[in-house]
Amino acid sequence: MKKLFVICAWALLLGGCESDSGNGPDDVPPPANPVSPELKQKAKDLNAGLVTLRELAGAMSRSAVGAVTEGEAGTLIAFRDGTEVMVVCDAEAVEAPLIGIAAAEDIYYWTLAAEKDTPWLKDASGEQMPVSGAVPVTDVDDEGYWTVTTGEAAPWRIVDAAGEPIKASEEVSVVLFRSVTTAEGRVKVTLADGGELSAAKVDDLSASGTANCYVVSAPGTYAFNAKVRGNGAGEAASAGFDPAIEMADGMTADWMWTDREGLVSDVALDKESGEIVFTVGEGKGNALVALVQAGAIVWSWHIWVTDVPQTMAYENGVVFMDRNLGAVGTAVGSTDAYGMYYQWGRKDPFYWGTKTSTSTTAFDELKELTVVNPAYESLMWGFSKAAVTHETAAANPMTFYNNTVGTGYNWLAKPNAKLWGETKQLNDPCPPGYRVPGIDAWENLSSGRDYIDGVSAWDVENYGVTYTHNGQTAWYPGQGYRMYSSGAIVGQRAASGGSGGYWSSDATSVKSYYLYIKKQLSSSSGSINPELDVHRSYGYTVRCCKE
User: Fold this and answer.
1) 471-492 confidence digits (pLDDT tens)
2) What's the superkingdom here (predicted)?
3) Could you tell me if 338 and 284 lie in one domain?
4) I need a labelling partner for 330 at 20 to 30 A (CA). Which of 7, 91, 222, 244 fits?
5) Is residue 428 domain-shared with residue 326, that is, in the same domain?
6) Quick one: 342 and 475 in the same domain?
7) How far apart are CA 398 and CA 362, in angstroms?
8) Helix, strand or coil for residue 367?
9) Residue range(s) defining the domain that contains residue 158
10) Domain match, 313 and 417 both
């Protein structure tokens, strides 16, 4: 017996004895409930989703959303602080995942989302786990129970509301996101457990390029780059300005005027990004917002709130907007189709009117149709018999200037024929992607100085011109114009007809060309003329075309 014991002892030291069953020393009994590869993959997928959920919750709590882009890989949510989160959604997800999040006193914590009472996921010491802390890493232990750990901590079993460990199952859902939607100026992410995360949506109007005018077509919060004048094109010598605006102490932003009270609000300058941020309410209309320093306007931008403008290709291939710059509609005969008036080469819009005025009443109706910000007492619509510098005109966007300059009349003391051009310039008043057209853009509207049967015609009831091509029509209202010598509106609807002027980008040394439309007459001057040049102090309308 002693000899046998010694032999077995040595056998154990060298690797153990064989049993009667024949199992060798490397044969280890399998666990009672082996973890399947499918279950392991579910844990891996859940962990990846939890990382995304933490990133998303953090970003939405500290920043507004800049853009939401749908793609094959999922929905990319880009935040204004530079964070980007890719969210993969399943619109049919109705079952709550193992782990989710919920808020308590404005702080998000990890939860056991599948539990009806939403008990908090507890750490090893029994405390709630804030989402801002470590991301829980799930797994399944050898006995088939869900475990969780954070960092280098030893894993512990996840327990339900009753304190019992939760058995792992391949039926568990690991889908965390159901949908991403944008509405009423907010981005909302709906979770699979029915919870929601949301953040304000701030649309970057200058994402496709900077300009002096931006189109807004829905209520919401918007921003644009205020470090660039216009589209930033041209050298300082020809443009009249350095295209760049350097942010400085004391700069602020505000609205100057609007034609609908409350249309634009909460205007603010983000000095870090150099953006002007503002909110647009319900309705349509126009407003002017400005960068201000020490009470003086550094630069201003036209905010045009209207339906998304449609386009029409004319016979010569030029693609025009379907409305005048500043118009809130296109209906034939409606004043909604009236646009802003512009002095040639200036970016600043002057409001339209419905009444013929005189030099003494030139801006009376305009004062009734618009609201001026009362915080700026010096702001007012008016006329000044003066030709000024670029800087003075930009600092006074509500003043209509005119004086004798050389052989013509101008708002600018030193005439500049390059302020607008067939290549878009810094002072161009059109929104991104559009510019003031050249005079040849309207070559298909007339034959000599007459309308063309079946192509262009004066509407005697609605006072304007309809152009037809390839089954589409364009309406040009004869909304009159502002006289160079006073700013008074003339050429409005009357028994004798009406008229309208549309600026082109073409210019001579002292004058500029425009399209003139009026009631069909028998006089030698004709009824439509795309070949006239006139003093740059006139206030005519603009119909933008594609760049």
Assistant:
1) 999 999 999 999 999 999 998 8
2) Bacteria
3) yes
4) 222
5) yes
6) yes
7) 13
8) helix
9) 38-200
10) yes
Both 97 and 239 in a single domain? Answer: no
Same domain, yes or no, for 182 and 231? Answer: no
Q: What's residue 8's pLDDT?
A: 32
Helices (H), 123-279: 236-239
Tell me the per-residue pLDDT of 33-60, one tens digit each, with 9 for 90 and over. Answer: 568 888 889 899 999 999 999 999 999 9
Tokens of 19: 């049993």
28 belongs to a structural domain: no
Dist. CA 542–CA 523, nearest whole Å: 26
Please measure the distance between the N-terminal and C-terminal CA atoms of the chain and give it in whole angstroms: 105
Nearest to 197 by CA among 214, 167, 216, 176: 176
DSSP conformation class of 350: B
Residues 185, 49 within the same domain? yes
| Angle at alpha carbon of residue 449, lines to 448 and 455, rounded to 5° | 80
pLDDT digits over 198-212, tens only? 999 999 999 999 999
CB 58 within 8 A of CB 51: no
CA 15/CA 23 separation, integer angstroms: 12
The closest alpha carbon to 460, from 519, 501, 517, belongs to: 519
pLDDT along the chain (547 residues), means of 10: 34 39 50 75 92 95 94 95 95 82 89 73 88 92 90 85 86 90 92 90 95 96 97 73 92 97 96 95 97 96 98 98 98 96 98 90 93 92 97 97 96 95 96 98 92 92 94 96 96 76 96 91 65 95 98
Question: Structural domain tally of the chain?
Answer: 2
Q: What is the DSSP string of 201-238?
A: BEEETTTT---SEEEE-SSEEEEEE-SBSTT--S-HHH
Q: What is the pTM of this model?
A: 0.83
Q: Of 200, 231, 247, at which residue does a domain stop?
A: 200
Residues 6 or more apart whose CB falls under 8 angstroms from that of 9 comprise none
